[in-house]
């Protein structure tokens, strides 16, 4: 089977809505209003799409440390993925997955990264998200999907993830590029609307996650992104973080689209780092 792209267009998805080996996942979410995404999904979504919630499905419960969105328990996530019909192998290959949101990839990229992390490679994000789907005049449904459960076998790429101890050891080493994906204001410590402490990890450079897409929510071209991430070619190791391991995945997605090796993810991010005195 030919490799599956990291991005698909609304036109491509519309042509493949009835593909029996394709699962579509609605990842819309709002950090300030956690129920909003599911409400939006119930009001209307891409036909056949399932809904996965950032807090309930794509993260594990918050602890004293580890950040605001720790990685989900693997067994629990395996059950969720199987419940929506994702299989590691079928007669025609692994289930292809397309994730979308309405937040410039902020939440769909989390699912994209999680599936890749678990060894499931045929996963893409819908370029332009829900807005592009609507603007294209494609069909919308409010019905709930049905389907057969899948058989998902996780194979975690554990070297993709680093913790606070690893960041502390490595961040000042020559050749290591530590990237803060948050907004410039949060990076500088001018404001902090979410976490209890403002600031950044010492030595981090700022690459705001929204810079890789257009204001309309489309990913910039691979050529633009290759220029945006040109410094990756000189780094021996890249570690990417944000507030809690969510929007950093947008930067990782854009690195993959650019044809660059993806950095490692410090999932806990600033919310974990600032939880230690």
Descriptive labels:
Oxidized Rhodanese, domain 1, 277 residues, five-stranded parallel sheet, alpha/beta, globular, single chain, 2 domains
Please provide a written account of the structure.
This protein has 277 residues and is α/β, with parallel strands linked by helices. It has 2 domains: 7-135, Oxidized Rhodanese, domain 1, CATH 3.40.250; 158-273, 3-Layer(aba) Sandwich (Oxidized Rhodanese, domain 1). It has 10 helices and 10 strands. The strands form 2 sheets. It has a 5-stranded parallel sheet. Helix 4 (108-117) packs across helix 9 (248-257). The protein is globular, with a radius of gyration of 18 Å. 45% of the residues are buried.
What does the main sheet amount to? 5 strands, parallel
> What's the number of domains?
2
The structural class is alpha/beta
For the termini, the CA-CA separation is 50 Å
Total number of beta strands: 10
Q: What is the chain-wise order of helices and strands?
A: EHEHEHEHEHEHEHEHEHEH
Multimerization status: single chain
Gross morphology? globular
Uncertain runs: none
Mean pLDDT: 97
Number of helices in the DSSP assignment:
10
Named CATH architecture of the largest domain? 3-Layer(aba) Sandwich
CATH superfamily of the largest domain: Rhodanese-like domain
Helix fraction bin: 25-40%
**What proportion of the residues form beta strands (DSSP E)?**
5-15%
Strand order of the largest sheet: 1-5-4-2-3
Using the CA coordinates, give the radius of gyration: 18 Å
CATH level-3 fold name of the largest domain: Oxidized Rhodanese, domain 1
């Amino acid at each position: 089977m030919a490799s599956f792209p990291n991005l698909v267009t609304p036109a491509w998805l519309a042509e493949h809505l009835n593909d029996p080996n394709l699962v579509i996942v609605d990842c819309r979410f709002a950090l300030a209003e956690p129920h909003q995404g599911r409400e939006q999904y119930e009001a209307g979504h891409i036909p056949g799409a399932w809904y996965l919630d950032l807090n309930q499905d794509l993260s594990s419960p918050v602890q004293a440390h580890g950040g605001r969105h720790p990685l989900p328990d693997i067994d629990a996530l395996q059950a969720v993925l199987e419940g929506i019909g994702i299989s590691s192998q079928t007669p025609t290959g692994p289930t292809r997955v397309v994730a979308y949101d309405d937040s410039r990839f902020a939440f769909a990229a989390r699912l994209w990264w999680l599936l890749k992390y678990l060894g499931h490679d045929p996963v893409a994000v819908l370029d332009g998200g829900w807005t592009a789907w609507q603007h294209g005049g494609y069909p919308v449904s409010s019905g709930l999907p049905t389907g057969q459960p899948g058989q998902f076998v996780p194979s975690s790429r554990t070297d993709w993830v680093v913790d606070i101890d690893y960041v502390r050891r490595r961040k000042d080493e020559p050749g290591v590029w530590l990237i803060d994906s948050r907004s410039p204001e949060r990076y500088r410590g001018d404001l902090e609307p979410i976490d209890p402490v403002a600031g950044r990890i010492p030595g981090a450079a700022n690459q705001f996650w929204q810079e890789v897409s257009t204001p309309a929510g489309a990913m910039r071209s691979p050529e633009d992104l290759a220029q945006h991430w040109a410094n990756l070619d000189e780094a021996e190791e890249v570690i990417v973080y944000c507030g809690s391991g969510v929007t950093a995945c947008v930067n990782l997605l854009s690195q993959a689209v650019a044809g660059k090796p993806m950095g490692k993810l410090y999932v806990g991010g600033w919310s974990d780092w600032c939880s230690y005195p």
